[in-house]
Structure formats: C-alpha cells, structure tokens
Specification:
Rossmann fold, 12 helices, 335 residues, five-stranded antiparallel sheet, alpha/beta, single chain
Length: 335
Amino acid sequence: MESTDVRVLRTARDWLAAGHRLQLVTVVQTWGSSPRPAGSMMVMREDGSCVGSVSGGCIEDDLIQRYSRLGGATIPQSAPELVRYGVTADEAHRFGLPCGGTLELLLEFQPDFAALDSLVQQLEAGQLVRRTVDCTTGKVTLATLAAPEALHFDGSRLSSTIGPQHRMLLIGAGSLGEYLATMALFNDFAVTLCDPRAEHLDSWSVSGVQITREMPDDAVRSFQPDARSCIVALSHDPRLDDLALLVALHSPAFYVGAIGSRRNSENRRQRFIEHFGETRTSMERLHAPVGIYIGSKTPAEIAVSVMAEIIAVRNGVALPRTMQVAEAKAQLEEI
C-alpha cells in the first residue's frame, strides 16, 4: 500500500498523460472541526472519478456536481480557484461538516504535467519535497527538503511538504506483528518485518510487507531510519529485541518501542544502562511497555494500543503519563 499523497499525485499525472481533464484539490485552511486536515488532497476527473478525499464525502459530491459532466459542467482551463465550504451553520449542516466547521480549498485546473511528473518521480525516489503553488497563476515550484515543514498559506501562495510514506520496522514475526502490520499498512506506513527465525516466518500471512532475515541490529542499519520511521521490537526474545533497540535508540526514528511486561521492560533499561552505556535520559526514548493503556489482552487489542501510540507520537500529541501502560497499571494496583 502506498502513501495517499503519492497515489493522488500519480493518478493526476497518469490521467493528464491519457488526455483527461481534471482538477487537483487541496485543503488549505480549516476552522473549527473538519473531516480532513490542511494539506489533504484529491484529484477529480471530468467524468466524476475521484481519488483521495478532502471531506467525509459531501464536499466531493458538490465538486462533482459543479465541475464534472455528471453535473452538466466541465472542468475549465483556467487559473486556480479558492473556494470555502461551511461558512454558515446552514452550509456546514448541508455539507456534513461537524460542529460548524469550515474548510477552504485550492482548486487547480489542468495542473502542469511536467511539474507533476517531476514531483511523482522525486516522491517515488524517497525524497521529501516542498510544493509551492502560486494561487493566482497556478505556477508550481518544487524544492527538496531535509526535514518536513509546516503547511503555509498566505492567501496567494500555498506551500506544503509532501513526502514518502512513513515507515515501520517490526522485529519479530507473530500474531501481534501481523495485526500491527495490517493496521500500519492501512495508515499509509510502508512496513518491513525482520526475523532471522525461519520457523516464525513460515506462518507469516500479511502481504505487502517487505521481509528480511538479517540479524535485528543489521536490519535496523539497513533500514536507515529517518524522522519518518518507527521501530517496534515484538519478538519477546532479548537476544533479538535488545540488539535492534540498541541501534534504534540512537537513530533519528520518531518512535522506538518494545513489547514486554513492566518488570521485563525495567530490567531491559537496567541492562542497557549497566552494560551498554545508556543513561536514564537516553532510555526516555524507549516506549516500553509499548502502547497506551486500554486494558488490551488479545494480540489484536494490543496492536490497536501500539498503533494509537505511534500515531499520537507522529502527530505530535503529548499523551498524559496516565495513558502509559506501566503508569496506568501501577495506579490500578493502588486502588
């Protein structure tokens, strides 16, 4: 499964190459509650076909009626337009925007093929790209970035960071890994599984996952973690998990986690500090026990808690300590 952004942009490029008329739609601003965040994109063809999303569906339906043959109109050959939905309570209700939310969209009609093709090629090569659109002329400029930048819109220019998929490296095959890999794929992560144990890999059933049989520390190095990467150790075997974690903790990965009980997690921290030169400060990067506390018992429920924590960290959400597994269980024991 590939990134939604890449899928939208590749589709737009391919439709243009095939001679279709289309519009590329980007959410540039939101107020109040909104179904999709700023930067979300969709592409719509003249016959009403769409890829991507800018709302829960009602905005897309209105765009189809306004700009497709299904609504008796055609996609124009003109400069971009800025349109706003949900300005009044009646409009918000009509378009299904929650709690009186409002969103502003940039509509690019027949965007430049060469710029789209260049952008898609850069994204497929794993580059992080800033795409800037002149909202008056439609001219697009591209620049590669070393780190993501916040979306910027000043009313006349829109700059957004578009990047390759977030990546997940799982250490250890098993039912928990299968559930977590499935959830990660549906959340636009590219997933790699590492397990040197053939007997564990033989039963792996999730497709779309890259598999490596390297030793975990070598796998982390080969993975080349960056700021869009997360690493989760799930083998329950310290000979495998610890090797991977020792390398991962000193990488740029935005999230490093490990399965285990509270006692095993604390023992691991002590081992790392006493024998491998780690410190209490460096160990703060390790999410262990992994996940947030939701009373999970089954592998599927644990995978939900892990994926929720990863998404929260990726999105910059500071979770309260009471949601950490160790803290929550300790408080329950005091009751």
